[in-house]
Amino acid sequence: MGWRKQRTAVMKAARRVVIKVGSAVLTGPEGLDLRIVSRLADQLADLHDQGLDVVLVSSGAVAAGRRRVKVDIDGMPARQAASAIGQSRLMHAYDEAFERYGKTSAQILLTRDDLKSRKRFLNVLNTFRTLLDWRVIPVVNENDTVSVQELKFGDNDSLASLVVNLVDADLYVNLTSAKGVFDSNPDNNPDAKCLPCIENICAMDLDSSCDGKTTDGTGGMYSKLLAARRTAQLGVPTLILSGHEFYGLKRVFEGEELGTWIVPDGKSISSRKFWLAYNNQPEGVLTVDPGASAALVNRGKSLLPAGITAVDGDFGEGALVRITDPGGDTLGVGLVNYAAADIVQIMGRKSADIASILGSCPYPEAIHRDNLLLDAAV
Fold it and tell me: Which domain holds residue 299?
């Protein structure tokens, strides 16, 4: 099936969609633009009326706070304070906009810690399931007032990809300030062209393809493509679309070809592997020799201590670590069976030697293949 036929089929068959909207779309010179919020709610309500489950991941709390206090927002404490002021106002704007269409919305504020804990992850999952069963529209945002790193680095694109996994969505739509993904930076090249489709996002060099960030947000096209690469591993396509396109969301679901369609991988990973790879931050690095690299990549093997040549970081048992080849390229990520100090002692040694070195051998592998994800988008 060609990508155009695939796009048409997915848009028609989708039953659950995650839509992310960024600050650069929602804001104007005075801060949060209530007209844009209203227009977005109009389109989402229409999709909801057609039977789709709709989950909205929305930035804009800082912008809403800025509009209220009308002061310069400079520095992390000011951004967090503006977010604290603006989050309730952002949600109030959505509540009022959806109410006009007889829709009920619900606020869900998340931090990475909420999704890192498997127990809390399942609690969040059950909340989403119940809300969607009740035909409520969840409005999700990063809990900016406590998530310093996420607020600083603009992680709502990443959050949205995690929500795709949480709710088992069929489609991910990212509404941005650009018309889609361009073949070069349109700010520097007036002849840059919008790509209608990216058929193999895993083959893209995101670092060289993207630069810059939006004025009102803290992310850019890099974070959007990284999120799309993650959802592609779930077998879920992404549509990157201009949020400034007049009723663009409605038009694409009616069949108009706008934005950039990102084709999912042919073979999807499990929800559990997605969770372990992306709901945690890598706490260290294991470098492996060529033999171990080939065993991991070509034969789907576990990582044994014998193949490890270097350990970087002070991590504990069960931590997520990055695995790199001898050249420093990332092979994947995985959950370690041993703490860093223990791996330093057993690296380069056979599994049969572990007990004599550490006093016991609870695991023959440093990382079991069931707890490892290759080609992780980290």
Answer: 280-374
Q: DSSP for 272-291, please give it.
A: HHHHHHHSS----EEEE-HH
Q: How many domains does the chain have?
A: 2
Cα separation, 180 vs 178, whole angstroms: 5
DSSP conformational letter for 327: T
Residues 213-243 pLDDT 10s: 444 444 578 899 999 999 999 999 999 999 9
Q: Can you say which residues are annotated as belonging to the binding site for ATP?
A: 20, 218-224
> Domain containing 308 — which CATH number?
2.30.130.10
- For residues 50 and 167, membership in a common domain is answered with yes
CB-count burial class (<10 Å; 0-12, 13-18, 19+) for 329: exposed
336-375: per-residue pLDDT in tens? 999 999 999 999 999 999 999 999 999 999 999 999 999 9
- First-last CA distance in the chain: 30
Give the end of a domain, one of 241, 272, 303: 272
pLDDT in tens, 80-134: 888 888 899 899 999 999 999 999 999 999 887 788 888 899 999 999 999 999 9
Note whether 242 and 286 are same-domain residues. Answer: no
Binding site listing for substrate: 59, 144, 156
Give CB contacts under 8 A, 24+ apart, made by 25-29.
25/175, 25/176, 25/177, 25/243, 25/244, 26/58, 26/59, 26/60, 26/63, 26/243, 27/60, 27/63, 27/216
